[in-house]
Amino acid sequence: MKKFLSVVGFTAVALLSSGCEKLSDKPPAFHNTDVTGVDYAKGFALTDHTGKPRTLEDFKGKVVVVFFGYTQCPDVCPTTMAEMATVMKELGPSSDDVQVLFITVDPERDTQELLSHYVPAFDKRFIGLYGDAAATAKVAKEFKVFYAKVPGADPGSYTVDHTAGSFVFDKQGRLRLFVRHGQGPALIAHDLRQLL
């Protein structure tokens, strides 16, 4: 009888152990849209706000958040950037393993100098990226991002309609999430922790 109980006990422990392993192999539960495995947003070749050429490869080893916007955006862009600054605070020391990139869809007005003041104002670690009209169109196509100039009262006062979400890459440089605008810092911080 003792032998039978010890076999039953051993089997129960083995089953529980294998169950625990399966639990730890469970895919992360994201609040935002899981786009793992999609075949786009593979990279970019742009210039950062310090004048340095940059590609997505430069940021391997970090979780990367990419947002498309422009400095004269009246609403979505500043609120998204402020939200990401709050996310960085919520992540604490882990935030050093996160890189936020702001890609302008207004290369006509968003100069290197303007980006160098605007983007780091939200968090000194944030990087602004820009290219000429052709490079901007190319990266927008690669990320399937919509943007279109909307005329204003005069030629220089136009606005730019654009996709309002952000793209999140894991530390290996794979696209994992699409973050819809207005999710709130807590949900974004939760998802980034899953990737950290």
TrEMBL record:
Gene3D superfamilies: Glutaredoxin
Domain of life according to the entry: Bacteria
Pfam family, one: SCO1-SenC
Residues engaged in binding Cu cation: 73, 77, 162
Sorted UniProt keywords: Copper, Disulfide bond, Metal-binding
Record carries keyword Transmembrane: no
Entry similarity comment: Belongs to the SCO1/2 family.
The name this protein goes by in its record: Thioredoxin domain-containing protein
Source organism of this protein record: Massilia timonae CCUG 45783
